[in-house]
Recover the amino acids of this structure.
C-alpha cells in the first residue's frame, strides 16, 4: 500500500464529514434560502439615502450596506455552524460510523480533529460563498470594488471555529439542543454586552448616566472582568469589518478580540480532545 | 495474539467484567460465550479501546489495546452493525478501504473482491437505507475483512441472517480460518460456534467459568449447548 500517497485519516474523516453534511437535504435547503436572501439584498443598494438632507454618494451607500450585510451573514452562519455541529457525534454514534472508524488504527484525536476540520471548512465555505455573492454584486453590478471584503470573510472564520469547537464539546456533556442553545446564548450575551459597552462610550449616554457628585460609584469591577473575558465574537467581526473600510487610517483595529477567541479555541479544543478520550464508544 | 490480564470493568457499583484473564493464540478460532449481560461485548469493547478497563490490561500482538497501532491488522464487526443510510454498500466499503490508507485504485480493486466474497454483487450500489438487516451485516463483515486483517473480532456476526445466510457466513469463516486468520467470535449460536471454533471461553456475570479446547470440555454425548447450560446454571 502506498501510504505516502494516501491522505492521512484525519483529512479523509474531514472530507467524509463535509460530503455527508452537504448531502443532507436540510443543508441544501438552508444554503439555497440563504443565497437567495443575500441575492435579493441587492435591491437595497439602489435606494436613495439621505443624511441631514444631503443625498449620500453610491460609494458610501455600498460600503455601509455591504458592511451591515457582512455582519448579518457572519452572525447568521455562526448559528448555522452551531446547528450543523450539534448532532455530529450523535449521528456518528447512531449510524455506527464512530465504531467503524475507531476500530481501525485511528487515534481518537484524529477522529475529533477530522470532524472539527470538516465542519469548520464547511461552515467557512458557506459563509465565504455568501460574502462572495455580496462582493460580486458590488463589484460587477455597482462597480464599487471592496478589496478587503473577502479577506474580512476569511478572518471571520475564526468565530466559526470557536462555535464548532464549543458546540462539539458541549454536545458531549449535555443534550444536543441544550449545547446549541448554550453557544447561542454565549453569542447573544456577548453581542448585547458589546452593544451596551459601545453605547456607554457615547457622550449622550455618559451624560444621562452621570451620577451626582458625592454619591459613591457602584463597584463594577467583577462585571468588567467578565465582560473582558467573555468570548469576543462581535469584536472579531468588527475587526474583520474594519478591513472593508477603504480609508486606510481606520487601520486593523485592536486585535484583543482575535486573541480572546483564539485562546478560547485552544482551551475548548483541548477540553474537547480530553473529554472525547474518556468517552465510551457505543 | 490476544491477551487479557486480570481485567475488571466496573460502572459505579456494578461489576460487568470481574478479574478475567485468558489468551487467544494466533491462528486460533475462539468463541466467547455467555448469557445476555455476561460481559462479552464489554470485553470486545475493551479490546478495541472503545471503553477502558477499571483495572488489568489487554493487548493485541503484544501492543496495549489503548494504542491505535494494535488495531493495524484487526477487522471488527459490531453487534447490530449500521451503515449510514445515505451511503451505498459500495461507498461504505470504499470509505473503510480509504481509512486504511489505500489509494483509490487499490481500494476499488479490494472492494470488488470483498463484494464478491460477501455475495453482494448487484446490490452494492443501492443505498444502505434499502438494505435488510442481513445485507447490512454482510457489508459489515465485508468492512471487517477490509485490508486483509490477521485478527477478526466478530460480535454476533450472524445476527439478522436467515439460515442460508448463516451457513454462508460460517463457510466464509471456515475458509478464513483455513487461511490462518485468528477469529474472535462472540455468538449465541452455539451450534455454529461448535462447527467453526477450536476453543471457547464461557463467562457468566462477568466471571470467566472456563477457557479450553471445545473438544476437551464437551463430554461424550454432550453438545456445547449442554455444557453451556450446565456451567451457566452452576
Amino acid at each position: 500500500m502506498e501510504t505516502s500517497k494516501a491522505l492521512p485519516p484525519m483529512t479523509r474523516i474531514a472530507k467524509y464529514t463535509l460530503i455527508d453534511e452537504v448531502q443532507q437535504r436540510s443543508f441544501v435547503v438552508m444554503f439555497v434560502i440563504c443565497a437567495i436572501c443575500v441575492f435579493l439584498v441587492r435591491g437595497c443598494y439602489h435606494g436613495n439615502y439621505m443624511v441631514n438632507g444631503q443625498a449620500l454618494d453610491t460609494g458610501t451607500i455600498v460600503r455601509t450596506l455591504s458592511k451591515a450585510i457582512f455582519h448579518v451573514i457572519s452572525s447568521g452562519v455562526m448559528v448555522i455552524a452551531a446547528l450543523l455541529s450539534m448532532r455530529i457525534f450523535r449521528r456518528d454514534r447512531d449510524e455506527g460510523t464512530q465504531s467503524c472508524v475507531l476500530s481501525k488504527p485511528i487515534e481518537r484525536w484524529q477522529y475529533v480533529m477530522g470532524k472539527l476540520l470538516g465542519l469548520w471548512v464547511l461552515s467557512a465555505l458557506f459563509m465565504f460563498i455568501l460574502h462572495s455573492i455580496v462582493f460580486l454584486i458590488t463589484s460587477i453590478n455597482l462597480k464599487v470594488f471592496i478589496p478587503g471584503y473577502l479577506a474580512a470573510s476569511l478572518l471571520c472564520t475564526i468565530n466559526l471555529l470557536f462555535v464548532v469547537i464549543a458546540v462539539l464539546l458541549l454536545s458531549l456533556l449535555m443534550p444536543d439542543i441544550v449545547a446549541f442553545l448554550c453557544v447561542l446564548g454565549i453569542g447573544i450575551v456577548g453581542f448585547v454586552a458589546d452593544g451596551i459597552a459601545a453605547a456607554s462610550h457615547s457622550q449622550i449616554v455618559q451624560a444621562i448616566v452621570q451620577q451626582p457628585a458625592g454619591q459613591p460609584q457602584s463597584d463594577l469591577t467583577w462585571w468588567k472582568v467578565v465582560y473582558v473575558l467573555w468570548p469576543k465574537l462581535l469584536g472579531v467581526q468588527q475587526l474583520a469589518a474594519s478591513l472593508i473600510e477603504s480609508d486606510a487610517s481606520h487601520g486593523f483595529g485592536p486585535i484583543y478580540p482575535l486573541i480572546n477567541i483564539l485562546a478560547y479555541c485552544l482551551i475548548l479544543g483541548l477540553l474537547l480532545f480530553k473529554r472525547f478520550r474518556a468517552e465510551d464508544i457505543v | 495474539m490476544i491477551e487479557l490480564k486480570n481485567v475488571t470493568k466496573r460502572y459505579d457499583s456494578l461489576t460487568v467484567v470481574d478479574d478475567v484473564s485468558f489468551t487467544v493464540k494466533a491462528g486460533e478460532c475462539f468463541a466467547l460465550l455467555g448469557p445476555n449481560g455476561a460481559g462479552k461485548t464489554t470485553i470486545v469493547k475493551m479490546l478495541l479501546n472503545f471503553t477502558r478497563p477499571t483495572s488489568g490490561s489487554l493487548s493485541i500482538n503484544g501492543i496495549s489495546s489503548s494504542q491505535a497501532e494494535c488495531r493495524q491488522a484487526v477487522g471488527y464487526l459490531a453487534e447490530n452493525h449500521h451503515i449510514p443510510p445515505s451511503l451505498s454498500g459500495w461507498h461504505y466499503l470504499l470509505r473503510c478501504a480509504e481509512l486504511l490508507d489505500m489509494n483509490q485504485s487499490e481500494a476499488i480493486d479490494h472492494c470488488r473482491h470483498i463484494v464478491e466474497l460477501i455475495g453482494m454483487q448487484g446490490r452494492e450500489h443501492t443505498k444502505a437505507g434499502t438494505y435488510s438487516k442481513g445485507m447490512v451485516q454482510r457489508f459489515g463483515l465485508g468492512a471487517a475483512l477490509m485490508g486483509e486483517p490477521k485478527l477478526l473480532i466478530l460480535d454476533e456476526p450472524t445476527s439478522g441472517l436467515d439460515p442460508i445466510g448463516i451457513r454462508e457466513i460460517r463457510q466464509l469463516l471456515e475458509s478464513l480460518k483455513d487461511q490462518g486468520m485468528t477469529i474472535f467470535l462472540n455468538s449465541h449460536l452455539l451450534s455454529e460456534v461448535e462447527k467453526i471454533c477450536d476453543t471457547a471461553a464461557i463467562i457468566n456475570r462477568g466471571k470467566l467459568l472456563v477457557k479450553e479446547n471445545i473438544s476437551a470440555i464437551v463430554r461424550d454425548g454432550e453438545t456445547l449447548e449442554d455444557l453451556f447450560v450446565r456451567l451457566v446454571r452452576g
About this structure: Strands of chain A lie at 50-51, 54-55. Chain A has one domain: 9-209+221-277.
